[in-house]
Design a protein that fits this description.
This protein is mostly helical. The protein folds into 3 domains: 319 residues, no CATH class; 62 residues; 234 residues, Serine Threonine Protein Phosphatase 5, Tetratricopeptide repeat, CATH 1.25.40. Helix content is 57%, strand content 5%. The chain contains 41 helices and 9 strands. The chain has a 5-stranded parallel β-sheet with strand order 2-3-4-1-5, sandwiched between helices. A two-stranded antiparallel sheet has the order 6-7. Strands 8-9 form a two-stranded antiparallel sheet. This is ATP/GTP-binding protein. InterPro entries: P-loop_NTPase. It comes from Streptomyces sp. R28.
Length: 874
């Protein structure tokens, strides 16, 4: 069996699909399967990935036609007897197709129109969304113009209208009202919450009322597939159908930094556990990678057990893992090849354990398999081969790879083996050549691949097994490199990356992160001096985005010791990035350890100390934070203004508002003066001036190109506006969410979530306490003391508006415990002001408010009375 035979008919891929689909059909029919369970792991997908032009789109189309019309199935493909009726829906995500998320949802619903019946829960939500997102544009016209209605004509609009009419009739709405989706859904929500018998058919969908009640924007639309899944689950047996949704050209939805569209598509897959998804694209899906937490809604091996790489360290992949490489051999092909290549009496000579090692080491590369078979025969002449004999890189692999390359091409090949990804210019510079001809010739070789996750900057990478062999094998070729040659090449590649970053336009975050990832690896592997990495590290931390720079470090105590400045820098930046989703106590430990190594240059050691001080402050240990910050603030280093800002924050948390305000006037933009003013004014209950200060900070952040600071300013502005005007707060919160997209700012995200609670304060919604409990869990996980106290203050506002004295007292008791160290103790007074209660014993005169206690009390209490008045008019 050779490579051409292996990949002509894609029989192995068809077998993988049918097996996964059979398992899915079994899973969705077992007792206890619940489409409304949003916590269970998802196994409802299969991913085919490979290099461009390898035939992924052809495979996707062939799968669609084979599932829809059995006669189109290739002769080599078996004919499985699926226990359920399947409905294939193929969607091309290529940029040239102009597909957006809205069209994806419409394409799925259009396919389901063949059922010949409305799906009321989803159809009502979709109709309401359409009226909001496309005012004055009939759905029929949109479908006709976009070519989406070619096969089903006007069926879908009629079904949507039928659902609207039926629900309006059930609610006894007049005809003029019953034709407007917004009016019908509003009436339906009220009926669902009142548990009227007239809507008992829809009452079984637990989240229908909440989804219909939400603002019908694109984000809300992305949750509507949950309604579609619920409708499919309740179809009668005669009409039951399982959608098989094929998403092709997945690499065109964006890149590995900008994941907005990917987030929506992942949500679609998660919310339709009874549908099966077949994704084809150039790269593996990273959804099982825990490092992406915060960039996508659902990440990690528990959420996506079939997407875990089977050969990853500590892999928890399920048998029959759901990512299959197209182009090289799949693991199944490798096992089949090794089983049939050497056999005796119909039994394979290579045992299962050895086949597994060879398969893992080969990366599916056919030449590696051939060399492994030859090695097996050679060893077998002397003794029985063992699996460990094949955990090697083959020198012959290099010789056979480079034998037809020119000397210049060989030189470039070895140079790019140092890089995770590269382009023509970077390959040429790493090789130290004056001309690009050799690099241009090299990328035409089959072992140089193109991939999506290399970013548009560096589209090429070496096949894994070739790169591993070149880097680690005992190279016996005539022009092999000495250790000195490798060091010089590493130095050239390192400097080329640095020059690329230095000459890039300001604010090119994608290039910065790419250069850091590769530069840190080279510096660590070859003990290079950090040089340009120092300035790049400062740029990385300046905007609070915190993309992962390296795989997660090995948990202590097995983590390797830090030996070089590059090792220490990797650990420093990794600790800063991971603090967004680790408890601050762990951040303090990691930053203390890296600072104590003495490996970092002085200014980077100061960076470690500064962020340790921030973590200490988040934990409520302000004395320790102040002790670290004071010498930094007194100096003239890069973090002097930031340290002075942190000291101003510490003064504010202690209730020293005049000190904090005076500091703000002297700090200017480097010390984020408007943000400090906003925090001080917010504490006084002066929300209009606080919101104006945050807006000024947001404007300055935009002018200076600091996207992270812009998101922070908007989240705090939204929190201020949530106290004063719930209607305006909705728009402010929406802007905050959009600005936070792609920014792993945990404290700021929590502030925005608390603003949602403040905006709902005083309402009689039954889920407010549930939301508060969820937030409290997230806050405790983060270990951020400011968020703990802010959450309690928000709850105090809610209970004060509701006039619930018992709950207000409970909030005050919790604040007493949380503020024993003195930080945010004035929140106790604020909650008392809100509820118009006398101050607890010993608190009177403890806080020096900017314009006195009576005025501050009046402002906070007026916010409560204004909210009561607002609710009374609803």
């Amino acid at each position: 069996m050779d490579a051409d035979e292996a990949f002509t008919d894609r029989q192995a891929q068809w077998s993988a699909l049918t097996a996964a689909l059979m398992a899915h059909l079994h899973n969705v029919t077992v007792p206890g399967f619940d489409v409304e369970d949003l916590e269970a792991p998802r196994t409802n997908m299969l991913v085919f990935h490979g290099a461009g032009g390898i035939g992924k789109t052809t495979l996707s189309r062939k799968i669609e036609s084979s599932l829809a019309r059995g006669e189109d199935r290739p002769a080599q493909w078996d004919e499985p007897d699926f226990p359920e009726r399947l409905l294939p829906v193929r969607i091309d995500l290529a940029r040239s197709a102009g597909t957006d998320f809205e069209r994806v949802v419409l394409a799925i619903r259009l396919a389901l129109a063949r059922l010949g019946r409305p799906l009321p829960a989803f159809d009502l939500a979709l109709r309401r969304y359409w009226e909001q997102a496309h005012p004055g544009e009939p759905l029929e016209e949109y479908l006709r113009r976009g070519g989406l209605a070619a096969q089903v004509g006007q069926t879908l609009p009629k079904q949507l209208q039928s659902a609207l009419t039926d629900v309006a009739a059930a609610l006894l709405l007049p005809g003029t009202v019953g034709s407007v989706a917004g009016e019908v859904t509003g009436a339906l929500v009220r009926a669902l919450r009142e548990r009227r018998q007239t809507v008992r058919a829809l009452a079984g969908c637990a989240r229908l009322a909440d989804l219909l009640d939400a603002e019908p924007d694109l984000d809300t639309l992305s949750y509507y597939p949950h309604l579609l899944a619920w409708e499919l689950a309740r179809l009668p047996a005669a009409a039951r159908i399982v959608p098989v949704i094929l998403l092709d050209t997945f690499e065109d939805i964006g890149d590995r930094v900008h994941r907005d569209f990917e987030r929506l598509l992942q949500r679609l897959v998660w919310l339709m556990p009874n549908a099966f998804f077949v994704i084809t694209g150039r790269s593996r899906l990273q959804w099982a990678d825990e490092a992406l937490q915060g960039q996508l809604d659902f990440t990690g091996p528990h959420a996506w057990p079939t997407l875990v790489s089977p050969d990853a360290p500590s892999s928890r992949a399920l048998p029959g893992a759901g990512q299959v490489l197209i182009g090289d051999f799949t693991p199944e092909d490798c096992h089949d090849y090794l089983t049939r290549r050497l056999s005796r009496d119909g039994r394979p000579l290579i045992d299962s354990a050895t086949r597994q090692v060879i398969t893992t080491r080969s990366h599916g590369f056919p030449l590696f398999l051939d060399l492994a078979v030859l090695r097996f025969l050679e060893i077998r002449r002397v003794r029985a081969p063992r699996p460990a004999d094949f955990d090697v890189a083959f020198p012959a692999l290099i010789a056979r790879t480079v034998r037809d390359l020119t000397p210049d091409e060989r030189h470039v090949l070895r140079s790019v083996a140092l890089l995770d990804s590269f382009d023509i210019t970077l390959a040429t510079e790493a090789a130290g050549m004056a001309h690009e001809a050799a690099a241009l010739r090299l990328i035409e070789r089959p072992f140089v691949l193109e991939h999506g996750h290399g970013t548009p900057l560096w589209p090429y990478h070496l096949h894994g097994v070739i790169r591993s062999a070149i880097r680690s094998a005992d190279d016996q070729t005539d022009d092999r490199w000495s250790p000195r040659d490798w060091e010089q090449a590493a130095g050239r590649a390192f400097e080329a990356l640095g020059e690329r970053w230095r000459t890039a336009p300001a604010g090119d975050r994608l290039l910065l992160v790419g250069c850091l990832r590769q530069g840190l690896r080279l510096a660590g592997d070859f003990h290079l001096e950090p040089r340009w990495l120092v300035d790049a590290a400062w740029s990385y931390v300046s905007d609070s985005v915190w993309e992962p720079l390296a795989p997660p470090t090995v948990p202590e105590p097995t983590a390797p010791p830090l030996r070089t400045p590059a090792d220490a820098l990797v650990e420093l930046l990794g600790a800063l990035a991971r603090r967004r989703y680790e408890h601050r106590e762990h951040t303090v430990t990691r930053l203390s350890a890296v600072a104590d190594t003495g490996l970092l240059p002085a200014e980077l050691a100061e960076m470690a100390l500064y962020y340790r001080a921030k973590a200490e402050r988040d934990l409520g240990r302000t004395a320790a934070s102040r002790q670290i910050l004071q010498p930094i603030a007194a100096g003239d280093g890069r973090l002097a203004f930031a340290a002075r800002r942190q000291l101003a924050h510490i003064a504010r948390t202690a209730g020293h508002f005049l000190t904090a305000l005076a500091a703000a006037h002297a700090l200017g933009w480097p010390g984020r003066h408007h943000r400090i003013r906003g925090d001080v004014l917010w504490a006084q209950g002066d929300m209009p001036r606080a919101a104006a200060a945050y807006e000024a900070h947001r404007t300055e952040a935009e002018e200076f190109g600091f996207a992270g600071e812009r998101a922070i300013a908007q989240a705090h502005r939204a929190l201020a506006m949530a106290f004063t005007d719930p209607g305006v707060a909705d728009d402010e919160l929406d802007l905050a969410r959009r600005l936070l997209t792609g920014h792993d700012e945990r404290a700021t995200t929590l502030a925005a979530q608390i603003a949602v609670l403040v905006r709902a304060a005083g309402s009689r919604r039954t889920d407010i306490e549930d939301y508060a409990r969820l937030l409290r869990t997230q806050v405790d996980t983060a270990g951020i003391n400011a968020a703990r106290t802010s959450l309690e203050l928000a709850l105090g506002f809610h209970h004060a508006v509701c006039g619930d004295r018992g709950q207000v007292d409970a909030v005050l008791a919790r604040l007493q415990r949380l503020t024993l160290g003195g930080d945010y103790a004035y929140y106790i007074e604020i909650v008392s002001f809100m509820a118009d209660l006398p101050l607890p014993s010993g608190r009177s005169g403890m806080t020096l408010w900017l314009d006195g206690e009576p005025s501050t009390r009046a402002r906070w209490h007026s916010l409560v009375t204004a909210r009561r008045d607002w609710h009374s008019t609803r």
